[in-house]
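Sequence decides. Consider this:

===
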Amino acid sequence: MNMNQIHSFLAITKTLNFTAAARQLGIPQSTISRQINDLEEQLNVRLFYRTKRDVHLTDEGAAFLPYAREMADAAEKGTRSVRQLHDGNTGHLTIATVPAGEGVLCECLDRFHRDYPDIVVDIDRISAGFTLMDDMDSVNDFYFMYGDMLAAGDEYDSTLTHRESIGLVLSRELMDDMTSGDPSTLPEAIASSGIVLLSEETDPIVYMQTMNYCRTHRFTPRVTNTFSDPSSLLLALRSGMGVSFLPASLVREAHDGILKFVPLEDDSYHISCVAVWKKSLLNPAAGKFLDSIEGVIDRGSGSRG
């Protein structure tokens, strides 16, 4: 039994005419007659009463009809599913992101989900200290990460998504106490305050920028605590336990009105964030998501924070 036989059987049940069914399917009448004969031999029953004037389903043909419809429907759904998967319209994506990449990723996912609602997307948050190298057996289709953490190599492509600004973060109450309304006194106030940090392992770029700021303003930071989890650090800052230097997106994530973000005066205190994918791009759905990334970037995500 094959699908050509099933399609021929269904065409005849609709037209009750072998010639009309053959015309509908675009095949010779002799072909459709042979397919029905072969199907009847395989089932060992007669499916149609045939005379020179009329064609009617037998009881066995009527009993077989709903199953034939089910087989044809299943075959059509299977074909459509495979084609959609090949075209990237359904399937599965895995994406990993550092916290600073989440804003652009959210825009990309919003655009992507509107166009391809049936594609399942898994998202993992990774440390900003994550380094992607050619010799890694990467498990994700895309990475949203710091550009400085992408090792040179030939296996991956990348595109700049945005530049994330780094600034001083502290409670609004502590900000008022430190500056007394005069922001120009801020470096001196920072030098005498306790600094809480993300660990170098968690976010080496922010750690380096923090040390650069301290060197530029000629003071040694008084580090009172170091955190490996950004959420724990934000909690410490809300509690007035010190000041820190962080990407703007982490403060926007808190958005509780307690914390104050003060951009640093030098444009060099920025992080370049990139989207990264394997050049092979074997997953068809990944090609569709890349279109969404390019659309968001073309629309002008630009510099953030």
Summary: The chain has three domains: 3-87, 91-162+271-304, 164-270. Residues 3-87 form a domain with the Arc Repressor Mutant, subunit A fold (CATH 1.10.10.10). The chain is about 45% helix and 25% strand. Residues 136 and 272 are 22 Å apart (CA to CA).
